Amino acid sequence: MNGQDMVVYEHEMKNYEMMLTEFYDANSSNAVKLCMQEEFDKFGERDKCWVQCCYNLENSKNQYLLMFSLNIMEMIINKKWEKMTFKSQETLREAIFNHIVMKHKEYPKYMISKMIKLLVDIARNDWPLRYPNFIDHIAQLLVNPEQVLLGLSFLLLSSEEFISPKEDLLGKRKHELKVNFLKHIPKLFEILSDILKNAHKTSNSDEIYEAVTKVFSDMFTWLPFEKHLTPDLLHVLMPLGKKENATSINTLTIFNEVLSKSYTQTEDRYFILSELCLYTFRLVENIIAVPEIGFVSEAYMVIVIEILSVVIRKYWNYLDSHFNNGEFLELLLQFTFRQDVLDCYYQCLDIWCSIFEALSDRPGCTEKYRRIFLDLVERVTQKINTFGSINDETYDDDGQTECQIFLNKNIEIISNVAHLYPVIAVPVVDNWKVYINDYITILNSPMLLENFKDSKCMFLVPSTRTLTSLSGYYEDSMKIAITKMLNDIAIQGVATTPLYQLPVSQSTTKTLIQIQSEILTALSRWMHLLNNNKQFCMEQNREKLFSVLVTSLQDTRQPTQIHDACGVLLPTVTEPMLVHISEYTSLLEQLLSPFLDGSITLNHLNKKTRLSVRVTSLKFLLTCPSQEEEIKVLVLMNYLKSLAPSGLNDLKMLTDVLVSSGPYKMSTRRIIYRSVEPCLIEAVTHLKNDMQSESSLNPQMEKCERVITFLSEMYELLHDTMSPQFVQILMQTFVDLDMIWSASTMLTIKMLEVLSLIVKHSSKSNKEFTSVVIKLGLEKLIPLVASNCYPPTVSALYNLLFCVLMYKWRYFFPASPSLTVLHPTNDNNVDNSEQFTTILEVIGYSFMTNDISIFSQNLKAIEELHVQWNLYAKEYFKHYFLSKYMTVLLNVMVNKSHTILSDEISMTIYNMASVDFDYFFSKFLPDYLKQTDNIRNDQRQFLRQKRMQPVKELPTFMINLAQLTNDIRCSKQI
Questions:
Q1: How confident is the model over 565-581, as pLDDT tens digits?
Q2: Residue of 468, 555, 448, 569 lying closest to 512 (CA atoms)
Q3: Signal peptide position in this chain (predicted)?
Q4: Residues 154, 119 contacting (CB under 8 angstroms)
């Protein structure tokens, strides 16, 4: 570069520094920025603009220009690299590397990382042939104490990019990168080990330890550890895992990877794994030895728990033999109950669960570790009694509070131990009786609430839940006694002035609500034991409980938690009363009438509880024997109308109640249909009007969606009782609403689902409707298939056509009196052959799509059609489609388009071939080979001789077919 060039480059650098500074100035206008952006774009298109970029990196301190230059280099490397001369490529590589070495202390870290990434990107494509000194560059940096962190950054990024590269690299190149990289691993590991051994001598030892262990932790995710983790390296790494910092987490991540993988067991490998097992328990001992666990971060604790889990699951036999008295489980026990973070505690409980699961294969351990498992139950019971401090108000996505999760996790452990030692169920009952007696005492003497915190009933919630989880271990007499006690307490706790409505502290109120709610919920799980108990029925306990529940549900002062528990218990109490309705009619009518006539709106109940009450009320109306059918229809009509107070905008509750109250016998379905028919007719009318109106606002679309969902669920529930006139109106409505096909994808899918249901259930003789549905389906599907477009509606369209074939088969193949079951394949007369042909053609096209869900759906569909109607054996199918379908499916196997479905595709081809094996082997396969491009004649001859031998047995056929398609694929690649 001569002096004149230097002047030009210097001037250009200053010019771009000014431009970029102005570009990023907040006061610059968008118009100015737009002009500058055009100049920047032109710069990137200039020949050898990278030379100017290198000059900028060498001489500028303007960070805007430095990043601009790096971005231009990145664009050149990614888009123009192949167009550069080898000399230019080499010059640019060396310039970037020299900038890294010379300026790494001046540039910010993100710029150095960017430059490293540029060189690694070049190496992904060029190393080792056109970038032979790439690894040498890394090694050069690693052995220099001043540049070792740069070398480690290079190595880490190389490991990430070479082993898990983006999809823009061909499979062959990916393999080459890994193979070549592996050749250098021994040398690199030797250097890394030396760095670790000498890091303590450096001033930045913490940074070096962290960076080296980070590189190792990444590499051991893909390296076979048995070849590269030596005992010497292991002993260098082990001390680094004991201090709680980033280095220790990296180190433990390495050990976790090593322990998790399968390996070939040699003497060295056995030594390393056994050392790591013992090392894991030394880590646990270190944590337990500290009086307060708070010094350990959650991240460190999580990785220790992960390793502990792997060690116990995978290396049980070694632990069992090495620790003769089960000391490893004793350590796990102490470690488990040192966890302050709930998630870590739960992970420890998961380890115990995995132990119990594995004990089915180790019967000798059950007695050997009895003491530890019983200690575990005692510790869990103590832990479970701390539930009061855990959130019980906020629900997660699964509808559970933290408190519920906490109780369930702990109770699962107790249940697991009870499975091994059923005897532990007895003390649970004894403890529960102590707690329940305390509660009964307070129920009878509310003034004792002043000393509530000292009472044993504080532990009643977890104890009751544990008791319920162990119900299978109790004798019937004990179960009934427990259930009666729960029943009495449930009545007493809600019937009189409840304790939680008395003036006590907020925390006491919360606990009392939890107790009463738990008793009601537990009773719902035990109640079935009393339903056939004569003494219980004679004492009218069921009626008392029912009255208490309904009264509580009507009382707006009751807490939501109590309402919810009553809603859960109500169906289990009411069902036996409905079975013997004549005995309970007056009571049910008296107590449920406020819900039936609308005097109580139920708005004070949550949705699930409201549904429970309304389902119970509806079942009573439908079961009540004292009404004539006409009166029952009128009463039911009014009741159903009350479930949707906002009309068509509020149909969800009506649908939920009707669906949840089933199943119904035919006579009941007729009554329901008569009662709901006005609402159905109104829904269809409004749907027509709304869809035909010019407005297309989203709220209207949402309303239409609700209406269609309602019609769909009602049709599925009541189709066999609906009048033919209404079904006709419903069918015609959906067929006529053409504008819906572009208005809303969701609406279109729902309409198609309803049409599919109607096709499935409608009269077999309704040929006109079948024809219209086929026409509609094909008109909408064919343009999509032709354009190779597969929006979500395509699946529903294909399903509609499948329903036509499956449930309206006689529309195409009318039954003939002259045919017998002895000649099933003689059913050759095809009515409406043009429509039949088009349907099979569009199904055939779907087997050429890359959309695996559509492919799988239609493959399953034609198989079901063959099972039901012997599709492949029909002469019409054999003549027009058999060869085409088998050709397409074979091509899919050869091209490996849908490898995950290989077995299903092979089975379908077998079923098609089996209708005429002679044709398949002697005619179809030779023709298929003849039409396959890029195969030499000698290869075709080989395939005919080796892979086309007639085989009718399914397993051999599928093996041969897989070999044939693989051979064809390999032949085409040669």
A1: 999 999 999 999 998 88
A2: 448
A3: none
A4: yes
